[in-house]
Design a protein that fits this description.
The chain has 366 residues and is an alpha+beta fold. The protein has 3 helices and 22 strands. It has 4 domains: 107 residues, conserved putative lor/sdh protein from methanococcus maripaludis s2 fold (Beta Barrel); 89 residues, Elongation Factor Tu (Ef-tu), domain 3; 61 residues, OB fold (Dihydrolipoamide Acetyltransferase, E2P); 90 residues. Strand 13 and strand 14 form a beta hairpin.
C-alpha cells in the first residue's frame, strides 16, 4: 500500500500536468480509490445522553412552617437519616400532647365502661342462679330487664373502644405532623442544592434539598428512531464525556432498554450502569456512548466521500462505471448503500466530481 503522502504528491502532479493517452484519446482522470466493504458489518453508532445518580433524591417539605435550622450545606456529604432541615415544631408538639391527653381520656372511659359491663354481667349471673334454684322467686320480667341493661352496657363499651381508636389515630396524625417538621436524608449522598434559609416560611411540597448519590452512576442514553429495536441489553458501550476528554473513558454494557419509543421525537431510552465510575465523573455531565452494531445481514459500505449526487463510480479496466445507489444508513465516516456493488470492487473517493460514466481514469488505490 502506498503512503498517503507519496500518493498526494503523485496526484497533484497528475492534476497539474495531465497524462497523455497512449492512443491520443482523452487523458485519464487521476482518481483515488478504495475497496468496497461487504458482508455482515459492525456499524459504529454514537448515542448521547446524561450521567445520573440512581440514588439522587429531592427532599421536599410536607408541612408548612418556618425554617429554624439548616445543618447540611452544599457540597457536604451526609449519611442516610442525617438532619438536613428543621422547621419550627412547637405547634406540632402541642398537637401531639393534646392527642396523647385525649387518648388517655378515651382509654380511661373504656376501662370505666368495661367495669360497668362486668358489674351488670355479674348481677345477671347471680339472678340466673337464683332463678334456676327457685324459679318462683324471680320474675321473667326481671330477667328481661337485666339482659337489656347488659346489652346497653356492651354497646356503650363498644362506643368507648371505637373512640379510643379514633383518639389514637388523632394522636398518630399529630405525631406524624411533628416528625414532618424534620427533613432527613433518605440516602447517603452529597448535597447539591440547598435552598432553605433560617427564617424562611415554606409551603407543603416545596423542594428544599437535592442530593446526589455518593456511589455508582448510570448513563441514560437516547437512541434515535432508526436505532429503535437494534440495540438490546448486553450491547457493549464505550462511554466518554465530550466536554472533558481528559477524564478518560469507561467500558460498560446496556443494562436496560425502554420497550417503546417515547415522545414526538420517537426516541428510545437506554440505561448503562457504572458501578465504579472513573475519577472526576459526576452526575449531570453530558455523556457519549459508542456502540458497535452488527448489521445482521449482508451489507455494502462505501466511504461517504465516494457518494456524489446519488451515485458512486467503480473503476474497472481503467474506466469509471457509474452506479446508482440508495443510502440505507450511516456508519460513522461511511454509508451503507444498496446498488449494483459488491465487496472488493474499487470505488472512487477523490476526483469523482468531474467523472462521467465510461471516462478513462488513472487509479491510485489506498
Amino acid at each position: 500500500m502506498r503512503s498517503h503522502a507519496g500518493f498526494f504528491v503523485t496526484f497533484a502532479l497528475l492534476l497539474a500536468c495531465g497524462a497523455e493517452s497512449p492512443k491520443g484519446g482523452p487523458s485519464p482522470v487521476p482518481v483515488v480509490t478504495t475497496l468496497v466493504r461487504g458482508g455482515e458489518l459492525s456499524i459504529p453508532l454514537t448515542l448521547r445522553g446524561e450521567l445520573v445518580s440512581p440514588d439522587a433524591a429531592t427532599v421536599a417539605t410536607e408541612v408548612a412552617g418556618v425554617v429554624v435550622a439548616v445543618p447540611a450545606r452544599v457540597g457536604q456529604r451526609v449519611a442516610a437519616g442525617e438532619l438536613l432541615v428543621a422547621l419550627d415544631n412547637e405547634a406540632a408538639k402541642i398537637g401531639e400532647r393534646l392527642g396523647e391527653a385525649r387518648l388517655s381520656q378515651a382509654e380511661a372511659a373504656v376501662e370505666a365502661r368495661r367495669a360497668a359491663a362486668d358489674k351488670v354481667r355479674s348481677g345477671r349471673d347471680r339472678l340466673l342462679l337464683v332463678h334456676q334454684s327457685r324459679p318462683e322467686s324471680v320474675a321473667a320480667r326481671e330477667l328481661e330487664e337485666i339482659e337489656l341493661v347488659l346489652a346497653e352496657a356492651h354497646a356503650a363499651l363498644k362506643v368507648a373502644e371505637a373512640d379510643v381508636l379514633a383518639r389514637r389515630a388523632e394522636r398518630d396524625v399529630a405525631r406524624l405532623e411533628r416528625r414532618r417538621t424534620v427533613l432527613l436524608a433518605p440516602t447517603a449522598g452529597v448535597v447539591m442544592v440547598q435552598s432553605a434559609r433560617v427564617g424562611d416560611r415554606v409551603s407543603p411540597g416545596e423542594a428544599l434539598v437535592q442530593l446526589s448519590g455518593a456511589g455508582p452512576l448510570e448513563a441514560i442514553l437516547e437512541a434515535g428512531e432508526r436505532q429503535i429495536g437494534r440495540i438490546e441489553a448486553g450491547t457493549s458501550l464505550r462511554l466518554s464525556i465530550p466536554s472533558r476528554p481528559d477524564l478518560g473513558t469507561a467500558e460498560t454494557v446496556v443494562a436496560g432498554v425502554a420497550p417503546a419509543a417515547d415522545g414526538p421525537g420517537r426516541v428510545q431510552w437506554l440505561r448503562a450502569e457504572l458501578p465504579d465510575p472513573p475519577p472526576g465523573w459526576v452526575a449531570g455531565f453530558a455523556i457519549d456512548g459508542e456502540a458497535g452494531l452488527k448489521s445482521g445481514d449482508e451489507q455494502v459500505v462505501v466511504p461517504r466521500d465516494a457518494l456524489i449526487r446519488g451515485v458512486v463510480f467503480v473503476v474497472a479496466d481503467g474506466k469509471a462505471r457509474e452506479v446508482k445507489v440508495e443510502v440505507r444508513g450511516e456508519a460513522g465516516a461511511d454509508v451503507v448503500v444498496r446498488g449494483e456493488l459488491a465487496g472488493g470492487e474499487s470505488v472512487v473517493i477523490r476526483g469523482n466530481e468531474a467523472l462521467a460514466d465510461g471516462m478513462p481514469v488513472a487509479e491510485n488505490p489506498i
